[in-house]
Design a protein that fits this description.
alpha/beta, ten-stranded mixed beta sheet, 15 helices
Length: 466
C-alpha cells in the first residue's frame, strides 16, 4: 500500500484530474464532485462497476484495468492508499512530475475553506454522516457532502450544494482526518483499530484528541463509548457536547424500543422529543442522537432536528435487504470489526423475530484478523445462530501464513456453530441447506462478500430445505 504523504503540495488549480481506483465509493464520490466543478475527469479501476458506468454517463473517461496510457493529459493524479507502488499510472505520474495527491488532499481541495462538519469514529460514521446530510436537506439546507457510502434515498455518496456548509465522513484509518480544517467535529466512538498505521492504542486515541481540539466551533462526542471517554479526558476544547445513554450526557437517550424500527426519547437542554427511525438497532438510535447534537450546534431546534433525522432511510451496505427465497431473507452489512458485527447482529435480531440468524462472515485484512480473531469468534458465536466463515479479504495487504477464515472458525467454543469453507459456491450451497423458513442470512464484511448474495439466493431457490 502507499501511505499518504500529506506534506506534498496541493495544487491551487486543477484542470484535468485522473483517479486511480475511481470505482470505490469514496473515490467515485470525489470524482463526481470534480466533474461538478467543471474539471475534466478520467480514472481507472481493476473491475467494471455501477460507479464506473455512472461516472462515464456524467462525462468521465473511465477505464477498466490499470495502464500507463490511461493517464492521458491529466495534470493531477488522485490515489488511495490501497494501490501498489508499482501501479503503472502512479509511476508515470511521478515520472512526469505531476501533482500526485492522496484522496484526502483532493477532498481538502474541494472543501476550499467552507464551514466543515467532520464525522469521525471507528464505527457508525457513514450512517451518522448520512443522517446529518439527509436531515439538512429536509430542513431546507443545500450542503455539500462526501460520504463513505451511498445514501439510500439520495442514490449518491456525494453532491455539490449551494451552501457554505460541507459535511464529510473523515477517515481516521490513516490519520488523514487531521488534514481538514474542521468547524464541528463529531466523534461517534473510539474503538482501537487500524493499528497497522498507528502502532498502538495510545497513538490511536491521541489522534482523536488532536482532531477534537483542532475543531474551531464544537466537538460532539459519545458519552458511552470507553474509547471516547478516554479521548474526552484529553480534550481541552471549550465547547464539548456529549450524547448517549449516560445520565450525564448533554443530549441523553432514554426509553428505547427495538421491537421493529428503533424508537427513543432524546432530551437536550431541557427539551425532549420522541424519535422514531426507519432503520433498526440501538446503535442507530445512538447514531441519530449524535446527528441531532450536530444539528443543534448548527442552530436547529431539537424538535426540528429530530423530525428531519427520522427521514433517514439508511445507506447502501448497512443492513440492506437484497431478496428472499423459500421464506429466507438475505441481508448485507458492511461490518468488519467485532463491535460493528455485534451491533449489526443485535439489530438483525429485532428483524428476525423467532427466525434464526445465519451469518456469512468475510474477515477483512490479515492484520485485523490476526489481531482480533478471538473477538470475532466470540461475537459471532454469541449473536448469530450459525456462521459460515469465508476466507480473508486481504485488500491492500499481502497474505500472512496461517491467517485465514479458519483461524476465526477454529476459535469458536462450539464448532457446531460454525462452518469454514473457502469456496464461495460451496458456501452458498451449504447456507441454503442450513437455512429454513423464517431464517435470515446476513453477509458481513467490507470487502466483496456482498457478491456472494446472488449465489445464495439461487442456492435457496434450487436446494431443498432440510
Amino acid at each position: 500500500m502507499i501511505r499518504p504523504d500529506l506534506t506534498l503540495p496541493i495544487p491551487d488549480h486543477i484542470t484535468a484530474a485522473h483517479f486511480i481506483g475511481i470505482g470505490g465509493s469514496g473515490m467515485s464520490g470525489l470524482a463526481r464532485m470534480f466533474l461538478d466543478a467543471g474539471i475534466r475527469v478520467s480514472g481507472s479501476d481493476r473491475a467494471d462497476s455501477d460507479n464506473l458506468r455512472a461516472l462515464a454517463a456524467l462525462g468521465a473517461d473511465v477505464h477498466v484495468g490499470h495502464d500507463a496510457a490511461n493517464l492521458g493529459d491529466a495534470d493531477t493524479v488522485v490515489h488511495t492508499g490501497a494501490i501498489w507502488p508499482e501501479n503503472p499510472e502512479f509511476l508515470l505520474a511521478k515520472e512526469r512530475g505531476l501533482h500526485v495527491i492522496h484522496r484526502s488532499q483532493a477532498l481538502h481541495w474541494l472543501i476550499g475553506g467552507r464551514r466543515l462538519v467532520s464525522v469521525a469514529g471507528a464505527h457508525g460514521k457513514t450512517t451518522s454522516t448520512g443522517m446529518i446530510v439527509t436531515a439538512l436537506l429536509e430542513l431546507g439546507a443545500e450542503p455539500n457532502f462526501v460520504n463513505g457510502g451511498v445514501i439510500e434515498q439520495l442514490g449518491v455518496s456525494s453532491s455539490s450544494g449551494q451552501d457554505e456548509l460541507f459535511v464529510i465522513e473523515a477517515d481516521e484509518s490513516d490519520g488523514t482526518f487531521l488534514l481538514y480544517d474542521t468547524s464541528v467535529a463529531l466523534i461517534t466512538n473510539v474503538d482501537p483499530d487500524h493499528l497497522d498505521h498507528y502502532g498502538s492504542d495510545e497513538a490511536f486515541h491521541d489522534a482523536f484528541v488532536t482532531f477534537a481540539n483542532e475543531a474551531s466551533e464544537a466537538v460532539v462526542i459519545s458519552s458511552d463509548d470507553a474509547g471516547a471517554l478516554r479521548v474526552r479526558a484529553g480534550i481541552t476544547h471549550s465547547n464539548v457536547i456529549s450524547f448517549g445513554l449516560a445520565e450525564d450526557a448533554d443530549l441523553r437517550i432514554t426509553e428505547i424500543r427495538t421491537d421493529g424500527a428503533v424508537a427513543a426519547t432524546l432530551t437536550f437542554r431541557g427539551e425532549s422529543a420522541r424519535l422514531r427511525l426507519a432503520v433498526p438497532g440501538v446503535h442507530n438510535a445512538i447514531n441519530a442522537a449524535g446527528a441531532v447534537a450536530v444539528l443543534g450546534t448548527l442552530g436547529y431546534a431539537l424538535a426540528d432536528a429530530v423530525r428531519a433525522v427520522e427521514g433517514f432511510a439508511g445507506t447502501v451496505r448497512r443492513l440492506e435487504l437484497h431478496g428472499a427465497e423459500r421464506g429466507v431473507s438475505v441481508y448485507d452489512d458492511y461490518s468488519h470489526h467485532p463491535t460493528e458485527v455485534r451491533a449489526a447482529l443485535e439489530a438483525m435480531r429485532t428483524i428476525s423475530g423467532s427466525g434464526r440468524i445465519i451469518a456469512i462472515q468475510q474477515p477483512h485484512t490479515y492484520s485485523r484478523t490476526q489481531h482480533m480473531f478471538q473477538e470475532f469468534a466470540d461475537v459471532l458465536e454469541n449473536f448469530a445462530d450459525h456462521t459460515v466463515m469465508l476466507d480473508v479479504y486481504g485488500a491492500r495487504e499481502d497474505p500472512v501464513p496461517g491467517v485465514t477464515g479458519e483461524l476465526v472458525s477454529g476459535a469458536f467454543a462450539d464448532p457446531q456453530h460454525v462452518h469454514y469453507v473457502a469456496d464461495w459456491q460451496q458456501a452458498a450451497d451449504y447456507t441454503a441447506t442450513v437455512a429454513r423458513d423464517g431464517d435470515v442470512v446476513i453477509t458481513l464484511g467490507c470487502g466483496n462478500v456482498y457478491q456472494i448474495i446472488p449465489q445464495v439466493l439461487e442456492a435457496l431457490r434450487t436446494t431443498a430445505e432440510n
